[in-house]
Amino acid sequence: LERTIAELEEGYGAAAFSSGMAAITAVAGLLSSGDSILLSDDLYGGTYRLFTAYFSRYGVICHYADASDSEKFLTKAKLIGCKALFIESPTNPLMKIADIRAIAKGAKEIGSLLIVDNTLMSPVLQKPITLGADIVVHSGTKFLSGHNDVVCGFVISATKELSDKINWIQNASGAILGPMDSWLVIRGLKTLGLRIERSQSNARIIAENLKKHPHVKEVLYPGSGALLSFRVTKAERIPQILSSFGLFSFAESLGGVESLVTYPWTQTHADIPEDVRRSVGVTEDLLRVSVGIEDIDDLIADLNRAIGADIGFQI
């Protein structure tokens, strides 16, 4: 499994972990007390919690900035003197895109490691190491396994030196992936390309249709991938909307064959302080959708029923 993941991401080597957060924890183990790290500002809530509430207790200094503005992001990294940069592209849940190649070039100039969370794209749609990243992380629970029945994480390193360090941390910490779970991921990888193709096709159609919906004021979709977010016109309708879905499941995960809807405000990003959430745009009116492989007409009908049930809106 590790050899396969390394080949998919075109890295030197990969290490498999018991969860995506275990994988990021291993990467954070490359830092020492007093080191600074600059992270995407609208990061997944679990990653924010890990660095800000956990690793800060051991002297790691965490900073945040908008990585979609690569020039400002790199300027801040240089001023701080960062040991590492950690970005998502697209970000979760605001779907902001970073110029990985430009950030990788700038990171090398200032002597920083560039770590990219590639969970939302998968190596089918994006390979950060080929763009200059030093390390790629995945929550393999999502697209790589693809069936919502296994929890896992991966770290892919661009060089032997980094791979050896991650493998040492993996062995020392013991947060390994078991053999049965490894087999399940290998099984899921066999359909990765097909799943991504269908889910992305569905997501593109849904994004275009949501833009026409009178109860939707903004659609956040980067143009590729199977994830999108949207803002409804009235945040107070969120409970009604969530209770009206039939085909979409109200659940936190993403990247499986089933379509899911998530409310970041109280779910994935609840551990981020309210003022920080608001400042980056994670607000009470925002819903995130992970589009699965179901029939597109059924998906649109379910969205219509949930979002526009009270007015009978039809696309």
What does this 3D model show about the protein?
- The protein is an alpha/beta fold.
- 39% of the residues lie in helices and 18% in strands.
- It has helices spanning 2-9, 20-28, 45-54, 70-80, 100-110, 122-125, 160-173, 179-189, 192-210, 238-244, 274-280, 296-307; strands at residues 13-17, 36-40, 61-65, 84-88, 113-117, 135-139, 153-157, 216-220, 227-232, 249-250, 260-262, 286-290.
- The strands form 2 sheets. A 7-stranded mixed beta sheet has the order 1-7-6-5-4-2-3, sandwiched between helices. Strands 8-9-12-11-10 form a 5-stranded mixed beta sheet, with helices on one face.
- A hairpin with a 6-residue loop joins strand 8 and strand 9.
- Helix 10 packs antiparallel against helix 12 (296-307).
- The chain is globular and about 55 Å long.
- The model is unreliable at 310-315 (pLDDT under 50).
Chain-wise SSE layout:
Layout: H1 2-9, E1 13-17, H2 20-28, E2 36-40, H3 45-54, E3 61-65, H4 70-80, E4 84-88, H5 100-110, E5 113-117, H6 122-125, E6 135-139, E7 153-157, H7 160-173, H8 179-189, H9 192-210, E8 216-220, E9 227-232, H10 238-244, E10 249-250, E11 260-262, H11 274-280, E12 286-290, H12 296-307
Parallel strand pairs: 2-3, 2-4, 4-5, 5-6, 10-11
Antiparallel strand pairs: 1-7, 6-7, 8-9, 9-12, 11-12
Helix pairs in contact: 2-3, 4-5, 10-12
